[in-house]
Design brief:
By secondary structure, the chain is of the alpha+beta class. The chain folds into three domains: about 80 residues, 2-Layer Sandwich (Uridine Diphospho-n-acetylenolpyruvylglucosamine Reductase, domain 2), CATH 3.30.43; about 110 residues, Uridine Diphospho-n-acetylenolpyruvylglucosamine Reductase, domain 3 (2-Layer Sandwich); about 80 residues, UDP-N-acetylenolpyruvoylglucosamine reductase, C-terminal domain (Uridine Diphospho-n-acetylenolpyruvylglucosamine Reductase, domain 1, Alpha-Beta Complex), CATH 3.90.78.10. It contains seven helices and 19 strands. The strands form six sheets. A five-stranded antiparallel beta sheet has the order 6-7-14-10-11, with helices on one face. The protein has a four-stranded mixed beta sheet with strand order 1-2-5-3.
Length: about 300
C-alpha cells in the first residue's frame, strides 16, 4: 500500500518517518514477504496521534517487531507496516527491576540483565526478535517464559485510544498467547528478576546455546517453530516420526535438523510455505488425530 503524500506530510509533522516501497522479505527471518510503505513512529508520546491519523484515513496497518515469528504474504500488500525503531531502544535497571523498551533486542536484554547478576530469563537468550514481540506471544524456551516476570507494561491500548500502563496481573499469559489485542502497541516493560551470579547465568546460557546449535537450523532462514506443541506432545517429534524431514514445496522445506522448523531454502514464497504447512498439518491429523496450531503468525492479503 502506498501512503498518500498528504498523509505522509502529516506523519512527518508528528515526528514519524515514512519509508516507501519496503520489501518485508528483507525485514523477516524467513526472507518472505511482499512490499508496502513502512511507518516508523517518533517519540512514544506521539503514537496515539499517529494511530488516530491512520484510523481517520482508514489506513489498515500491521505491527512489525523483530520479524522473526511471522510469515507475510507475497506481492503488493494492502496495509502499511508500523515498526518501532530499535536504534535508541533503552535498557535500565534499578534493584531487581529491569526496564526495557519494546523495540530492544530480546537476546541483548537477557545479556544486559545477566551482567548485572539478574537471571530467570537466560533460556530466552537465543530466541530471536524484540522484547515487544516476546511479550505479545509470551516467548519461552527451555522452561523459561517471559510472562511470569512482568511487573508492568506501558502500551498504546487500541480499545481506549490512549497510552496506558497495565500491571502484570492484569494480563493473561498463556502458552505462546496473551490477552493483548492485535492492535495494541507494546512500548515499554518492567521485569522483576531474581538475583543470580553472572557466572551461573553464563553457564546456563552456554548449555542452552549448545542445545540450539545441535538441534536447530541456525544458519538457515526460518521463523523458529512453525507449530505450537499440543498438550503433552511434541509437534516436531510427530512430524519427524512421519518421515517428513526434508519435505519440500518449492523452496519451502521441513528442516533436516528440527522437524518443527520450516526453512526457506532459496526463494520460497508465502504460498509455498502455507501449502507445506497445510500438507504437514493434514498428515499429522490423519496419523495422530491432532490438529496442529500455528505458532508462526501469518499475515495474509
Amino acid at each position: 500500500m502506498r501512503v498518500k503524500d498528504s498523509i505522509a506530510k502529516r506523519l512527518n509533522e508528528l515526528g514519524s518517518e515514512l519509508r516507501r516501497d519496503v520489501s518485508l522479505a528483507e525485514k523477516t527471518s524467513l526472507g518472505i514477504g511482499g512490499v508496502t510503505d513502512e511507518v516508523v513512529p517518533g517519540p512514544y508520546e506521539s503514537i496515539p496521534a499517529v494511530m488516530h491519523l491512520l484510523a481517520e484515513e482508514k489506513l489498515a496497518y500491521r505491527l512489525l517487531g523483530g520479524g522473526t515469528n511471522v510469515l507475510i504474504a507475497d506481492g503488493e500488500l494492502p496495509w502499511v507496516v508500523l515498526h518501532l525503531s530499535h536504534k535508541h531502544a533503552g535498557l535500565s535497571v534499578e534493584d531487581r527491576v529491569v526496564t526495557a523498551d519494546a523495540a530492544a533486542d530480546l537476546g541483548g536484554m537477557v545479556t544486559f540483565c545477566a551482567k548485572r547478576d539478574l537471571g530467570g530469563i537466560e533460556g530466552l537468550v537465543g530466541v530471536p526478535g524484540s522484547v515487544g514481540g516476546a511479550l505479545r506471544m509470551n516467548a519461552g524456551a527451555y522452561g523459561t517464559q517471559i510472562g511470569p516476570h512482568v511487573r508492568e507494561i506501558e502500551l498504546y491500548r487500541a480499545a481506549s485510544g490512549r497510552l496506558e500502563t497495565l500491571r502484570g496481573s492484569d494480563i493473561r499469559f498463556d502458552y505462546r498467547h496473551t490477552s493483548f489485542a492485535p492492535e495494541d502497541v507494546m512500548l515499554r516493560v518492567k521485569l522483576e528478576l531474581p538475583p543470580k551470579p553472572y557466572r551461573d547465568i553464563l553457564a546456563d546460557i552456554r548449555v542452552c546455546n549448545e542445545k540450539r546449535r545441535s538441534s536447530q537450523p541456525l544458519n538457515q532462514k526460518s521463523a523458529g517453530c512453525i507449530f505450537k506443541n499440543p498438550p503433552g506432545a511434541s509437534a516436531g517429534r510427530m512430524i519427524d516420526e512421519l518421515g517428513l524431514k526434508g519435505r519440500r514445496v518449492g523452496d519451502a522445506t521441513v528442516s533436516d535438523r528440527h522437524a518443527n522448523f520450516f526453512v526457506n531454502a532459496g526463494r520460497a514464497t508465502c504460498s509455498e510455505m502455507l501449502k507445506l504447512m497445510d500438507e504437514v498439518r493434514d498428515k499429522v491429523r490423519r496419523a495422530y488425530g491432532v490438529e496442529l496450531e500455528n505458532e508462526v503468525i501469518v499475515w495474509r492479503n
